[in-house]
Structures are given as structure tokens and as C-alpha cells.
Amino acid sequence: MxxxxxxxxxxxxxxxxxxxxFVAATLVxxxxxxxxxxxxxxxxxxxxxxxxxxxxxxxxxxxxxxxxFLGIAxxxxxxxxxxxxxxxxxxxxxxxxxxxxxxxxxxxxxFTMADVLAFRMRQRPxxxxxGISTIVVSIFYLLAQMVGAGAxxxxxxGVTxxxxxxxxxxxxxxxMIIYVVIGGMKGTTWVQIVKAVLLIAxxxxxxxxxxxxxxxxxxxxxxxxxxxxxxxxxxLEPGLKxxxxxxxxxxxxxxxxxxxxxxxxxxxxxxxxxxxxxxxxARKSVLWAxxxxxxxxxxxxxxxxxxAALVGRSGMVAVEGKTPSGNTAAPLLAEQLGGGTGSTGGAxxxxxxxxxxxxxxxAVVAGLTLASSASxxxxxxxxxxxxxxxxxxxxxxxxxxxxxxIGAVAIVLSLYAGKLSTAALVALAFAVxxxxxxxxxxxxxxxxxFTTAGAVSSVYAGLISSVVLVVFSPVLSGAKNSLFQGVDFxxxxxxxxxxxxxxxxxxxxxxxxxxxxxxPDPEKYAELEVRSLTGLGAH
Amino acid sequence: xxxxxxxxxxTEVQLIDDSEEFRTLRRSFRSFAFxxxxxxxxxxxxxxxxxxxxxxLMRAKVIGHINVALVLGLLQFATTFAIAAWxxxxxxxxxxxxxxxxxxxxxxxxxAPRESAE
Lengths: 539, 118
Hints:
The complex is a heterodimer of chains A (539) and B (118). Chain A is mostly helical. Chain A has a single domain (2-28, 49-534), classed as Up-down Bundle (Sodium/glucose cotransporter), CATH 1.20.1730. Helices cover 76% and strands 0% of the residues of chain A. Residues 1-6 of chain A have low confidence and may be disordered. Chain B has 118 residues and is mainly α. Chain B has one domain. In chain B, 74% of the residues lie in helices and 4% in strands. Chain B is built from four helices and two strands. In chain B, strand 1 (61-63) and strand 2 form a beta hairpin. In chain B, helix 2 (20-53) packs antiparallel against helix 4. The longest helix of chain B is centred in the C-terminal third of the chain and has 39 residues, at 68-106. Chain B is elongated, with a radius of gyration of 23 Å. In chain B, 27% of the residues are buried.
């Protein structure tokens, strides 16, 4: 008992020290970057001076969130093969960004997603719609990350009380606001790069250790995971989580579609394409990102099955309680790999991997806060409220205030969302992005006839339908692991709304265009087409 | 404001848009991006549907504990890497030279705004 207690203090101190080093280093970077920020383009787009490789790392840093590292490893550890679908969807989705979005967006926009939509439409309605959907998607995503931070701290400090979780969420929130307000895009990008390198190194170390335990034979690892899970071969087949009923199969399809179409509509990913000088560099950054993210997801496969074999459901139940979300699978696996509970090696590994996970969360929330506050300032404040009359200084100042406000909202909401799985929450953010943002982006870039009415109806219909369906889904009420217990107001059977709300987003854009009397401006479309394909006149 | 007007007359861009060079460029881009997108989305959906509705096929063993489901999942990774590499090559050869040529031919008339001038 005393041994346990002393080792717990030991790893706690070590984790705090490592994490303190990360925070100190990133704060130095932030202040350094902040001193170089002069124009709005520095604040929003990091001066557009990053290379393809740097931005590829930063994209990977933005994308490999707590949901990927903690969430997917946990889902695989608990549900076996069904957790793998997340990795596949998350990766394949990058092809949509590569082939259809990254280059035209880089050429035709300036700071935000709405720049592309507003190119040939009426500014105010389109920017209002896009600004609102950007902020909603980002807040869903922020919630997921902060819930992950809360779960981690419960594990690290060995407390189940809410006090420690609250302080963690507050601290994470405060730091992300500082990164964004002081460092802007340049600071945030460097934080992403540092974090991406740490995360890949941490995951690679664990993957090698897991595989080494099974003689570098993946089949042996799978066999051990299957037998430790108590479910035998079924653990390695699809269907454990989603195969039970026809409804759950539909949920699986809905999730799959949301994942593959969501990435190219995520605001914090889209703004990354503006940090490089040309469309060709934007393409290169996506190519790097696909390579880095793909390898990372292959490693989470080993980590998930490794956690199933070495930690097991019982190990997660012991830490998380009766219905584990799996968020602690990766850190617990690290402890096992280092030598187990109570050993010094275990304490060191747990501390290192937990610090990496914290760094991951911190970097992602900073990226999200930046994207949403940029959209607030550039779209809603400068172009809607001030009708384009705000000076650049005023615009950047309002972005900083928006970062504080959005950060505060995310902190407050996270305090109440503690029981949800981070991967499931992120899947919802993907569904909203795929329903509200992707249809209108594609129509704007490739459909000549598309109009303001079409753009506005597509964004609102996709946004409202996806959010309403989530509210009345089993995620909030009526199921064993719903957020609200003891009430049941759900009528939509699926956890993920994508299957219904994504077609609604596409349909609304098409109908809105056909039903409006508005004539599209052929000259503006010609300009958009030429600019998006050749870069003529691009910022 | 947002999209600073191009300094030439309005028809200049429309002329470029209508030119043979630009139409070829647009065709090269679209004839790659659109069909390939449809292709990989269908291939991915096939995988998702098989996971749901073909458990017998998916659980068939390939080697040791590795089954068809896992192999198909890893194949999704492989095709993603392959398509990305294929597009990179295609864009280098077919899109970039054409885009550069158009940009250079009209760069003198259509002035690209500098960031510093904002």
C-alpha cells in the first residue's frame, strides 16, 4: 500500500515536471512568435511562410487529437475491430481534402472558410452562416478534447472527485487562450509541430514495446488481445459494437460517412491551408499529413490491441468505473509496458505518455480556438457587424477577445460533458462539419449556378439538422451511457446524425439555389475558377 | 476588401476562363479529381457495408489470427497512400505546368496582391 502510494507520488511529480517543461517551452515559442506578429495575415495565417513539411506536421498535430490517441486506442481496446473503423475513416477522409479542397481553398480564400463561400455571394448572409457553423463545430471538438483532459487527470492523480478535473479543464482552457492571444497562428503552428513530433515519438516507442512482447508477430498480438478480451475471435471481427441490431448497423454506416466527409469541412484544418505560400505547398502539406497520420493510425491499431491484451477491460474499469469510455487505455498500456503498476519503469512510462497526451490536447484546443476566433473576427465582426469598415487592428483585437469568450464557453460546457467518449464527441463534430460545411464548399467551388440562397440554406439546414438530431439521439438521453440519466427525450435512433443530415445539407444547397430568383454572377465565377486553379490573384 | 478586384477590366478574367489553355487545365484537373473521388468513396463504402452485412466473409481467416476484415482495413490504408502518390505525380506533370503557364502569361496584366500591401 505504501509502495503504491509512493510510486503514485513519484510518477505524479514526474508527469507534472515533464508537462511543465512542455508548457514552458511552448510559452517561449508563443512569446517569440507573438513578437513577430504585425499584420492580420501574421495573426491569422502565420505570415503564410511555412513549408509543406512544416505545415504537414502541423496539420497532423491539429488532427491527431486526444480522440485519436486516447479515444481510438480505447475504442479498439474495448470493442476490438469496430474501433478500427474510426482510423480508416479519419485517414481516407484526407483524400477529399487533397483532391477537392486544399488547393482551391488556398488560392481563393484569405483567412477563413467563409472567404471562399463569400467570393461570389453576398457577404453578410454567407459569412454569418459560415461563422456560426465554424464556431459550433469547433465547440463540439473542443468539448471532446477537454473531456479527454479531465479523464487523464483523474487517472494521473488517482482521484475520482470532480475538483481535480475542474482545475485541469480550467488550466487547459487558460493555456489555450494564452497561446492564441499571444502567439496567433505562427505560435500555434509551432506548438502543433512540437506536439506532433512528441506524439509520434511516444506512439512509436509504445508500438515497438508492444510488438516486442509478441515477437514482432502481429498475429500473436491479435490472438493475445482476442483471448484476453474474453470474446475470442469475435473481438477481431466487425460487429462487436455496431453489429448487434439493424439500428446499430445503420449507426455504423452513418459514422463511416460522417468521418470520411467531415475532415474537409473542419474549420481548424481548413485554416491550415492558408499558412503556406502557394497551392502547390498546400498540396505538399496534405501529402505529408496523409503519410504521418496514416502511420500514426497504424500504430494506434497496435496500441489498441496491445491495451486489450495487457490492460484489458478490467484494468480500465478499475480506473474509470463501471462503464469505461476507454480514454485511459493508452496511458495504462504505457504503465504496463514500463513494468506494471508500482514499478519505477511503469511510473516513468505513464508519466511520459500522459505528458504527451496533455501536450496533444493542449495543442489541438489552441488550434480550434484560433480557427473559431478567426472566423468570429474576420467573418462576423469585420464583415457582418462592421460591414467591412473595421481596421485590421480592430479585427485582430476582436479575434483575441473572441478567443477568450469561446475558450470560456468551452470550459463551462466541458465541466458538464465529462462522461462522454472523446472519440464519439469528435465523431459528432465531424458529422456537423460534413453536413454544414462540406456541401456548400463543394458547390461554391465547382457549381457555376450556385447562389447565396443556396449557400445559406445549405449551411443552416446541415447545421440545424445535425445538431437537432444529436440532441434527440441516445447520446443525450435514453441510453445506458447517455449524458443525462433518468430522463428520456430521444426519438432519433442513431448516435451519429450523418446519414440523414449530410444528404439534407447537400439537398438544401441544391434546392435553395433552384428555388431562388437570384442570378449567379458569371464573371465572379470565372474569376473564382481561374484563381482557384491557377493562383492568379491569390493572396 | 476581401477579394481585391483584379486590376484589369472585368472581361480579362472571363477571357482567360474561356481560353483553350484554361479549359484544358480545368479538364485535366476535373477528369482526375472527380472520378477518383467517386471511386475511393465507393470503395470505402463497400468496406463499411461489408463490415456490417457480410460477417461470414469478414471473419474468414487469412493467416493465423489475421482475417479478411483486417486485410480489407489495411487495404484502405494502402489505397489511400497510393491515390495520394498518384495525384502528386499527376499534378506535377499535368496541372502545375499548365497553371504556371497561364499565370505567367497573364501575371503582367493580372497583378497578384502582395501580403505586405494589405
